[in-house]
Amino acid sequence: MTTKSVLDTRPALAAEVEKVAEVAGYLWQKGWAERNGGNITVNVTDHIDDQIRRMPALTAPVAIGSTLPHLKGCYFFCKGTNKRMRDLARRPMENGSIIRITDDCAHYEIVADAAVMPTSELPSHLAIHNHLIGRGSNYKAALHTHPIELVAMSHTPKFLVKDVLTNLLWSMIPETKAFCPRGLGIIPYQLPGSQALAEATLREIDDYDVVLWEKHGVCAVGCDIMEAFDQVDVLSKSARIYIDARCMGYEPDGMTQEQMQEMTRAFNLPK
Predict the structure, then answer these.
(1) Whether residue 214 lies in the annotated active site
(2) Catalytic residue among 16, 121, 149, 227, which?
(3) pLDDT tens, N- to C-terminus, the chain (271 residues)
(4) In this structure, is the dihedral angle defined by the CA atoms of residues 85, 87, 91 and 97, taken in order, positive or negative?
(5) Does domain 147-260 fall into CATH 1.10.760.10?
(6) Residues 141, 21: Cα–Cα separation, whole Å
(7) Are 73 and 54 in contact (CB under 8 A)?
(8) Which fold has domain 1-141?
């Protein structure tokens, strides 16, 4: 019997792609992934065997646009360009592909299952992965999506001051501080896909696992794609609580600074 996919005989690799499909479905259901909006990349190098390493490329090498020395020999699952999250959820290997970084660390090539070109945001995503590996992080996943309530709050200047929105969202419900303990970074509006946006994101993820791009969306990183999604999810829950309270006609009190500091001590949180 002919193997139809590299996932068929590799359960660990298949499990990572299944997580991507599951998260893609959540993003669509939540209304965070209109049309082909949003991107996902996952470093799957740990699940690549010698047979895959020997596989011929399906495409000629494609220039990344920069040299990323920490990615030599790495493999990534990437959402395809112009592909919809709702389709990625149902048929991940038809709407995404596995790529490898060439030995010069400046190009990539597609190796499986089909020549689905990766997201146009791939250079920015790869720069994030290169940065994470360079600092010794065990994070493997990067997510970009458009969570409605968080984007709505980014239209208010007072929430764009450093850590104002972090403290507000933490104060809405204890789980947000517990499950997104590094808070929410803020990047003033930059042209989507620009080098300026990519560079600003790299600076922020040294201090935050989730970064809010003003009037655009968020970028989140995590040990796997589910962890990256979960952090955005809890932040969005807090944003929804705040917005619902305001719609009911009052400013929510939120937890006090003393109560949040008590959580930091009790659960050994980083902030």
Answers:
(1) no
(2) 121
(3) 455 899 999 999 999 999 999 999 999 999 999 999 999 999 999 999 999 999 999 999 999 999 999 999 999 999 999 999 999 999 999 999 999 999 999 999 999 999 999 998 899 999 999 999 999 999 999 999 999 999 999 999 999 999 999 999 999 999 999 999 999 999 999 998 888 999 999 999 999 999 999 999 999 999 999 999 999 999 999 999 999 999 999 999 999 999 999 999 999 999 9
(4) negative
(5) no
(6) 13
(7) no
(8) L-fuculose-1-phosphate Aldolase (3.40.225)
